[in-house]
Amino acid sequence: MGGHVGGGKGFQDRHIGPSGAQEEEMLSVLGYSNLKDFIADVVPENIVIEKKLAQVLDNAKSEVEVIDELRTLASENEIFTSLIGTGYYGTITPPVIKRNVLENPAWYTAYTPYQPEISQGRLEALFAFQTVITDMTGLAISNASMLDESTAAAEAMTLARRTSKAGDDAVFLIDHNVHPQTKAVVITRAKPLGIKVLEVDVLAVDPFLNFFGVLVQYPDTTGAMDDFSDLATQAHSKDALLIAATDLLALTLITAPGEWGADIAVGSAQRFGVPMGFGGPHAGFMAVRSGLERALPGRLIGQSVDAHGNPAFRLALQTREQHIRRDKATSNICTAQVLLANMSAFYSMWHGPKGLIEIAERVHGYTAALATVVESVNKSYFDTLTIKVADAAVVHKMAASLRINLGIVDAKHVRISIDETVTASKFAEIVSIFGAKVVSAQGSGISPAIKRTSTFLQHPVFNTYHSETSMMRYLRTLADRDLALDRTMIPLGSCTMKLNSVTEMEAVTWPEFASLHPFAPADQSKGSRKLIAQLSKWLVEITGYDAVSLQPNAGSQGEFAGLLAIRNYHDSRSEQERDICLIPSSAHGTNAASAVMAGMKVVVITCDEAGNVSLDDLKLKISEHAGKLAALMVTYPSTHGVFESAISEICALVHEAGGQVYVDGANLNALVGLAQPGKFGADVSHLNLHKTFCIPHGGGGPGVGPVIARAHLAPFLPNHPLDATAGPTTGPGPISGAPFGSASILPISWAYIRLMGGAGLTHATEVAILSANYMAARLKGSYPILYTGEKGLIAHECILDVREITKVSGVTVDDIAKRLMDFGFHAPTMSFPVPGTLMIEPTESEDILEMNRFIDAMIAIKYEIDEIIEGKVAVEDSALRHAPHTVGAVASNEWDRSYSRERGAFPATFTGLIPGELIGMKGKYWPTTGRIDGAYGDRNLVCSCPPIESFA
Fold this sequence. Notes:
The chain is of the alpha/beta class.
């Protein structure tokens, strides 16, 4: 203990929940005397790594030492005022939002709101975000956020292709003044789908050209704002869709795209209170006109009613989602940017419509004043000017001397984007760069023809919380409606809801990391680039691969990047005919959707009774598609929660047939320190940094999904047109808008690896596997365990088979999930990968007391199920079917249930099965809504706040 700077326990002992004594207790239950023998019986001998991580990675550092190292890295970054624009802008995060949301585990440790009864707080915030987007864009419906502006534009292109009636020979048009990173991401996405993209001046399009969609930037990357209403008419005459990439702050002053004929609007909500962060994470957005809502990708928050007839929020139209539709999905996206979307929604509430207009008018006023004293080429502008100069190099040098970055255009032009952070004194410095003096603005860059006349954000939620007291209380009220890791374990299989420690999180809000523009000169981001290089090296050493790209900003994007690398590898070898992707029936839904996006055809491999990939079916499908096999996608350990000993043989069979092996990294938490995909036969993987490497789930995003590959695929990893260091010149183009994706949250994973060291990471994996087996052993008397390995053991998660219980009792996995809320728990993963089952993953962060609390709750629920089976109570009258129980229901004068109020609300006390000290561990958590009617919400789709007229 004395070896740790700062004294006390080491970080490993804080991150890993079970103590040494608790590990021994769990091992005893499983019949083992030590961890080494136990792990040897779980992990197949043929994949165990010879060289331990402790020999490869540096020793663990203390929390004090790691923060000091991060401070040193941060000091190597230089904070300039970056007026580069191009979709990224300085903004001021209101401190009340920074402290109470961004830095609050009640918000950042929550899971995706698939269980709406315990997610009402963030669902309300996302509902408000959707309202912001629909109000600002003038379109009917918005989703709950996209990954960034560029990927949103790419998704809009594929939406247009799916829904347009234009013929198969129709092309996709991009205006020449769209942001360059967006152009590049759209082109990357279009190529494997066989979509032809043309870059044109959209205001001079050949009237005979057949196109299915057109993308414009409004205002465009030069700063100009064109009237695209005639273009919209032209597009609609061809059954094509017009997509406007737009700016929310500008839309407070200029006509909404939906008002001049746009079918789809996309963009980024970054400048609504979310730091630039060297490129992310930020909430992208997409809004569509009426009629396109069922083709809209991503998540959609809708309003429904609960069992008591009260309004309540939920995810709407989930049948669109990739995990259900698989290779027929509208998109492979299975995440959003919830935490950042919430921040932007609260920013909109904090300022309200008047405040947002004041910010926009100040920004535009400074821009107009600058246009008065420089030679601008813009005939119109909101915040951005392209300025003609004698020598651009001299101007950039002058700006740099004042610690200001301007946008690079060419030798005779520079670009500048004024933002919210510019003050009068800063503006005087800006004017001096051009050898001018501050004068009053003469005129405006917004013509009357495009000036906004419609109102927006009139709902009371945007016109109430303008004092810090009221906003603080509102945020607390919302947080209290949710259930996150700060209250209880979240035992979701496949999602690895582990501790997101404060020390790991601390650097995220430091200005040296948060204030960087992704396209600022590289010498200003030396610290971030060093951190990225170190994290990349560590990930390579952990996984046994050779090269990594941190650009993909979600697991789905990492999957796409990995499959694209395989696709381009085959193309480079003149094997374009290889387009078959084999995927086990148990796979994550994103796998199939990603394969289709990469231009492949999906062929499903069956699984045997033990949950393993069927070797017989694999061999059959390989022989059926000989010469056409591109890839096998497989999750390891399997999605069924077992280590398949045949994994090396599976990889060899695919390689012999000329294919490549993609190992989905979702379950890497069972491998770190024990086995390496890059060594047991895999060619490429994506890694979920928001699972294995401690980036928090944020209520449904952000995520980071690096793609990592062996040397022969390294030339085909993502690159970026605006940063030559971000990938190989032979790469397919960018996957995400920013060169290094969601760079501002990479310090979290960097800190986790540094704090744990190789030995700590290995121990974490061992404890995760131990804890899962302990839970399975204690629960199997109540619920059958569906799949186990050869020695009756599982990996880091287990599947409880509820199907027979449902058959004899009528109690469904939904009933169990909702009843767990009365015990103060989030449900395990429901009906995935097998319908009618529950998948549980405790992670290494939960101690034995919390695991026992959950186990005892599950046993108590089985006690209630047995009462139904024995005929003591009908399932329709049971506490299970009426769960969850709200304060309103329990305190009501009306109570006609067959069980007591106490039993409904305090189920832990009635059976006598749960020890008293476990009952008292947690204060009672009250769900704020009863069970929500999903079908009603889909039939009556309401996805944004009602207009103010409805309150009259």
